[in-house]
UniProtKB/TrEMBL annotation:
One of its GO terms (molecular function) is isomerase activity. Gene3D superfamilies: Aldolase class I (3.20.20.70). Pathway: Amino-acid biosynthesis; L-tryptophan biosynthesis; L-tryptophan from chorismate: step 3/5. Belongs to the TrpF family. It catalyses: N-(5-phospho-beta-D-ribosyl)anthranilate = 1-(2-carboxyphenylamino)-1-deoxy-D-ribulose 5-phosphate. CDD domains: PRAI (cd00405). The lineage of its organism: Bacteria, Bacillati, Actinomycetota, Thermoleophilia, Solirubrobacterales. Residues 40-243 form the N-(5'phosphoribosyl) anthranilate isomerase (PRAI) domain. The keyword Amino-acid biosynthesis applies. This is N-(5'-phosphoribosyl)anthranilate isomerase. It comes from Patulibacter brassicae.
Length: 297
């Protein structure tokens, strides 16, 4: 049945202009892209295609191992290609174990490293000199058996601390995890900045979400858990790992925004989960940190 005149919508008065949609100014900045609450570093990369794939799927950093004894050691020419390809697209890390300062400096310049990861028994002053000479941010790693190994990192005022698994008599690559609860004893001294925390050791697509929700790291670091073979990445595992890491906190805290500074977003456990008392490190005979001399390779 046809509409009666009273059922039809009233026509706009003659000469009345229709409202125009509001457009942002031409010079308005684009909306800021929200970073994932937990970043991902894909380490042990030896091939350009693996580096490109990791970054395309959301990796914050790609790590290349320069230690001569590693099964995942990268060729120097490949490292140069990877560094050049990822310039301004992602962080590029070089991993060293007790390497001379000049060697680190040469590699950082030639391979355009933005991060230098020191996985041996380098001291605080050496770490500072690496940062000064290379201009890269330094990651100081410790291999963890107990709370003392974690708190022993306090004198290292680097940009990042990395916690990995200690295995006696083995250089690494064991795929074993440590007790992630130990990460919660990490506390800066009064009025000192807390370095950002990277969590490593035995992480896989299946357990990385649990690790994140236990230790609340700023980033997670994986090598063997995303490989088809040492030095060769499995694309499906890389994608699954990154997706699991990026989605971990969204599952547990769907309504919470990512904090800009401090709190769980910067590698700190929530206040409700913070330990009641600090655990002090035990002294070693030579006064060195208990377990910063071995490296996961």
């Amino acid at each position: 049945m046809a509409d009666s005149p009273t059922d039809r919508p009233a026509a706009a008065p003659s000469g009345t202009a229709r409202p125009r949609p509001v457009r942002p100014p031409v010079d308005a900045p684009p909306p800021k892209r929200r970073e994932p609450s937990t970043r991902v570093k894909i380490c042990g990369v030896t091939r350009l295609e693996d580096a490109e794939h990791a970054v395309e799927h959301g990796a914050w950093a790609v790590g290349m191992i320069f230690w001569r004894e590693s099964r995942r050691r990268v060729g120097f020419e490949q490292a140069q290609l990877i560094g050049a390809s990822l310039k301004r697209r992602a962080e590029v890390a070089g991993v060293f174990v007790n390497a001379p300062l000049d060697e680190i400096e040469r590699a950082a310049e030639a391979c355009q490293l933005t991060l230098v990861q020191l996985h041996g028994d380098e001291g605080p002053q050496f770490c500072g000199e690496v940062a000064r000479r290379t201009g890269a941010k330094v990651i100081k790693a410790a291999r963890v058996r107990n709370a003392a190994d974690v708190t022993a990192l306090r004198p290292f005022h680097t940009e990042f601390h990395l916690l990995d698994t200690f295995v006696e008599g083995r250089p690494g690559g064991t795929g074993q995890a440590f007790d992630w609860e130990l990460a919660k004893v990490r506390r800066a001294a009064p009025k000192e900045r807390q370095p950002k925390l990277l969590l490593s050791g035995g992480l896989t697509p299946d357990n990385v979400a649990d690790a994140i929700l236990t230790a609340f790291p700023w980033a997670v670091d994986v090598a063997g858990g995303t490989e088809a073979a040492p030095g060769r990445k499995d694309p499906a595992l890389v994608e699954a790992f990154i997706a699991a890491a990026h989605g971990a906190r969204a599952i547990a805290e769907p309504q919470e925004p990512t904090p800009a500074d401090g709190g769980p977003g910067d590698g700190e456990a929530p206040a409700s989960e913070a330990p009641a008392a600090e655990v002090l490190p035990s002294a070693t005979p030579d006064g060195a940190p208990p377990s910063t001399a071995r490296f996961t390779a």
